[in-house]
Write a structure and sequence with these properties.
Elements: H1 2-9, H2 15-26, H3 31-38, H4 44-82, H5 99-112, E1 117-118, E2 124-126, H6 127-130, E3 150-152, E4 157-159, H7 164-173, E5 178-187, E6 199-209, H8 214-229, E7 234-241, E8 244-253, H9 259-264, E9 270-279, H10 281-286, E10 295-302, H11 303-311, H12 318-321, H13 324-327
Parallel strand pairs: 1-5
Antiparallel strand pairs: 2-4, 3-4, 5-6, 6-10, 7-8, 8-9, 9-10
Helix pairs in contact: 1-4, 2-4, 5-11
The structure holds phenylalanine.
Length: 334
């Protein structure tokens, strides 16, 4: 009976100790073997009780070995190979698109729907594609409008200040009709602040065909602002760009419903979103397109500016810091 108590109390998590226990009780030279051998010497009147006790001891010892063995196997499997299989799964971290990409893709989609394709070009440009072909000859004062990063002078190699350079390349390489948008990164030597950065992104558009008019430009802009912002009240303010004539600045009526609307529109309700105009005949000539046969319009906008409007981002520097707390907020967007 003392052994029954011992068997009942036994516990271990180690295989070796369990094996020692098994040998002691159930082994070929173990206690039970001895007790069974002893059975024939037990007086008849005690045989019944003795038999019951050693049978109980046998079952208890066998059960104990079995249950501890199972426990050891389970814990080995779960901790070393699979971890704790009963724990709930860790959530899978998935990435999210950068807001610049989200907005760029939206703009690309909107223009793809009306037949524009996407064109790309180099970020390191020569003077011809960034300036001269765009009606900005050497010493033209408007070159100062775009604070350029030069990599080399004479002959000039520079970081493109706008993606209009891509449009020049596109015109040089293809014949009208041309309908293309050029998204990409551009560089300007400007002081970095919450509102401007020396690196940013643009989407510029170009449409060239026979009889393209300013009315076509305005309708295209109306279509775009409706699709992009759900707002279709725009105004065109006369402006100047060397590569377009006439030129205009596009304002969208943002409204004055919230405090933010007041702040970003400086209380006017109007917001400038892009520049545009009819392609200057000199630019067409420079790109081997006959201005007597073809006309066209062009427009250009900053992606950061639009993303800041749509997502109410107060500081342009956020786009380049790669702070996951910022980036994670765009998970819900595609
Ligand atoms: N290239 C101009 C800029 O970077 C934008 C623009 C493009 C304006 C096309 C008019 C026409 O500011």
């Amino acid at each position: 009976r003392q052994y029954i108590a011992e068997a009942e109390a036994f516990h271990t998590t180690k295989k070796e100790e369990l094996e020692a226990f098994r040998i002691k009780f159930l082994g070929s030279k173990g206690l039970l073997k001895d007790f069974f051998a002893e059975f024939k010497n037990v007086p008849n009147e005690l045989k019944k009780e003795f038999g019951q006790v050693i049978n109980e001891l046998k079952t208890k010892a066998e059960d104990k070995v079995k249950s501890i063995q199972d426990a050891i196997e389970n814990s080995q499997q779960s901790s070393s190979v699979y971890g704790d299989l009963t724990r709930p799964a860790e959530p899978l971290e998935i990435g999210s698109r950068h807001p610049i990409s989200i907005v760029k893709n939206q703009i690309v989609d909107i223009f793809s729907n009306i037949g524009f394709n996407v064109s790309e070009g180099p970020e390191i440009e020569d003077d011809w594609h960034n300036f001269t072909a765009l009606n900005l000859p050497e010493y033209h004062p408007a070159r100062d409008m775009q604070d350029t990063f030069f990599i080399q002078t004479n002959p000039d190699v520079l970081l493109r200040t706008h993606t209009s350079s891509v449009q020049v390349r596109y015109m040089e390489a293809s014949k009208p009709p041309i309908r293309t948008i050029s998204p990409g990164r551009v560089f300007r030597n400007e002081a970095v602040s919450s509102r401007s950065h020396c690196i940013f992104h643009q989407v510029e558009g170009l449409y060239i065909d026979k009889d393209v008019s300013f009315a076509d430009l305005k309708q295209t802009l109306l279509y775009f602002t409706k699709e992009m912002f759900g707002k279709s009240k725009i105004r065109l303010r006369p402006s100047y760009f060397p590569f377009t004539e006439p030129s205009a600045e596009v304002d969208i009526y943002w409204g004055l419903k919230t405090e933010t609307d007041y702040r970003i529109t400086k209380g006017t309700g109007w917001l400038e979103i892009m520049g545009c105009g009819m392609v200057d005949p000199n630019v067409l000539k420079n790109c081997n397109i006959n201005p007597d046969e073809y006309t066209g319009f062009a427009f250009g906008m900053g992606i950061e500016r639009i993303a800041m409007l749509l997502y109410q981002i107060g500081d342009i520097r956020m786009f380049y810091e790669n702070d996951v707390r910022f980036l994670e907020q765009f998970k819900a967007s595609i």
